[in-house]
């Protein structure tokens, strides 16, 4: 354990004193981990405000908090009511690409429907000048039909370079629906920022298909990020017992679930609908884990602070209780490293901060916000 740091710099704002710090080994040098905050109840996602204004953190029970000047705020007002059951609740948070002008914050969350069923919803509201509430919050998208009894909401948000909003949607635990084009379960959808459907989406005008769909055959995708070097969207999803996978989704393509999978049921029995690891007419994973780390969150490292991390992708692991670093050569994944295994905690989200550090959220009742840096080998 290293001595406590008295002062740390966060996006140009001084943090509170006496932050806990610890070192962990890695292939690229010594990892330096600082605990910036705790007391978060199952935090799910974070998003950085510009100009050193801090960051927003979502908590699954339905709270959105601001972390600034070393402190967590009280819950912000104007956040929608959420279905906080099982894996459901307040999930991802993302800023509008034009946040500096429009101050719009996007939230994805589990929304209750009829008969105790729920589905993913996305809405947006304007962050007030005092950063205490979201104003004029409006729902722009709802997963239909609502089928979840508390599992597989997916729910990551990502904007591409043209400003389209992508939303990952789990199949709500209803496996066959991932193949049904008239349903929004197990899909990646592509929208305009106000929720309208782009006319060049692959299924626009096709009878019996939802026009929002970009790709289908997904299980429970909880990672999405734009590759900064290629501009292509990457996603990852949970397999069942085995078969977590990364995809680079293309328009109109079928990514297989539940027909094609590297996993089996939690009961150790085969997936009833599965026909094998590779099935004609479906896309194989870009990368697959035969043993599931239970992946959540995704970030590409393109900052200048730690050159040894350039062209790396970082992914949180829940069951494996680790941070996964993947080395890239173009779109090829050429090496995998497991980090922070000694931390022994579920990592729900990972983001690259404007200061070039990695920021992590731990998934626990007393969830933590961590900052991760790299000291070069001596």
UniProtKB/TrEMBL annotation:
| Gene3D superfamilies the UniProt entry points to | TolB, C-terminal domain (2.120.10.30)
- What is an example of a Pfam family matching this protein? GSDH
Look up keyword Transcription regulation and say if it applies: no
- Is Signal tagged as a keyword? yes
Keywords from the named record: Signal
Q: Where is the Glucose/Sorbosone dehydrogenase domain?
A: 40-371
Q: What is this protein called?
A: Glucose/arabinose dehydrogenase, beta-propeller fold
Q: What organism is this sequence from?
A: Azotobacter beijerinckii
